[in-house]
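Q&A log
Question type: sequence-to-structure
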Amino acid sequence: MTAVRHVGEFDLIARWSQLVGRRSPQLVTGIGDDAAVIACNPDADTLVTTDMLVEGVHFRTDLSTSEQLGWKSLAVSLSDVAAMGGTPTFAFISLGLPADTPLSFADGLYRGVERCAAEFGVTVAGGDTVSAPVIVINLALLGEAPVGRAALRSGARPGDALLVTGSLGNSPAGLRLLMAGRRDERFSICLAAHLTPMPRLAEARAAVATGAVHAMIDLSDGLSGDLRHICKAAGVGAVIDEAALPIDEECREAAVLLGLDPVDLALSGGEDYELLMAVAPDAASRVISAVAATGGARATCIGVIQPGDVTIRRATGCLAPLEPRGWEHFGRG
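Response status: OK
Response body:
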C-alpha cells in the first residue's frame, strides 16, 4: 500500500492541487505559494495563509515558554505574508489542547500571540478550541497587497540576482543549542532567532516597492530546498556562492561547540524565516539600499538565477549540485 510517506510533503501538495477545482475568477494565486491571493476589492488584493504547529513535530514544551511558542505561532504566518510583500491584518487562532494542559500555559500561548500581533499591527479576530491528544496550534492569517503587485515564487528570470535578508543558520543553531541544554548568553542571537523569530515585513514591502523583485519566498524549510521552489516555479536554475552566505560569528561559534558545519546550518537547517528574492540584476544595489533604509535586517547578494541546475560554488572554487536537504514532512522512505 502506498502511504503518504512514500510521496512526500511537496508532491502531496502538487497532487492535491489537482484534485480541487478553481471555481472563482477572483482567485489570483492559489495552492503552491506562500499565501493565496484573492481579488476581493478594487483597493487591495487579499492574502490568506495558514500554518499548523504540532507538539513533538514542530516544538517541544520543555524547550520554550508558552509565550515564546505563541509568538512563534503567529510569526511564521507573518513571514508568509512578508514573502508576498503584503501587510497583515487579521489572525485566527485554533488550538487543540489535552484536557490536563495547565491553564497558565494556555493563557501564555495567547499572550505570546497577542504580543506578536501588537508588534506588527495585527488583530486577533477569532478561532476555535478543541480537545486533542497533543498540543496543536493552527494560525490563519489575512493580509493585503497592492492590486496585482503581490510577490510570487514564479517570476525568477535568468540573470536575476539572488538576495537574502538577515543571517542564515541562526535558528537551527539555536534549536540544537536548546536540545543540548546550552542557553549561554553568548548565544542569545541564535536562541532568539529560533524561539521568537522576526518576520521581515517592512523589509519585504520596501524591496517590492522598488519594482525590481521578480520572485520571493520565505526560508522556512532551508535555503537549499526553498531556492528549488523558486527555480521549479519559473523553470530555471541557480548558482549560490558559499563565500557570500551571511553567517553570523555567533552561529559559527555554536557550530564549533556542537560539532556541526555552519554552512550546512545555513543551507539546510530551516526555520530562519528570512526572505529569498530574485531581483533584476541592474537593481540589486537599489533593493539592498531600500531594505537597509527600513532599519531592520540587511540584504545580501548570494548568487544568481541561471538556466540549468541548482548549484553552489564552494569556497574552494569548485561548482557542485546543491541538493535540497531542508525539512520535509513525510520524508520519503
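Response note: DSSP finds ten helices and 13 strands in the chain.
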